Amino acid sequence: MPAAALKPKPLPTQSTAKRPVQLDLPYEPVPKRPLPAGRPREWYVTHNRRLKAMRLAIALLDSGVYLPSQARNERIRSAALAVGVHPPSDTTCHMVRALMRYSR
């Protein structure tokens, strides 16, 4: 018997299923913990910007935006409104596109 016949068939995804696959409801965020004390202010600004960019990148991927070229600043800012965070700066929008680029 060929080895390929012994492997279990993977579950269908949204793109390969014959009918829509029911997606799980959005997860509940992890409780926030205080950041470590004693670091320079710039470290905290950068850290929070990275967290915000990550949240926005995940929201865009969940909404069907998979390519950085599809994620214009306006689209990222509308995702921020949907997620419930303040509109990002141009720097944060650039960081969102960079995260999407390197996740591929």
Beta content: under 5%
Q: Whole-Å distance between the termini?
A: 35 Å
- What is the mean predicted local confidence, pLDDT? 82
Radius of gyration over C-alpha positions, nearest whole angstrom: 18 Å
Q: Give the % helix.
A: 40-55%
Number of extended strands:
0
Query: Which ranges are low-confidence, i.e. pLDDT below 50, for 5 or more consecutive residues?
Result: none
Number of helices: 4
Structure description:
It is a single chain. The protein contains four helices and no strands. The protein has a domain at 41-104. With 104 residues, it is mostly helical. Helix 2 packs across helix 4.
Give a brief outline of the structure:
Residues 1-21 are annotated as: Disordered. The protein has 104 residues and is mostly helical. The chain has helices at residues 3-6, 41-62, 73-83, 90-102.
Q: How is this fold's topology laid out?
A:
Layout: H1 3-6, H2 41-62, H3 73-83, H4 90-102
Helix pairs in contact: 2-3, 2-4
Features:
104 residues, 4 helices, mainly alpha
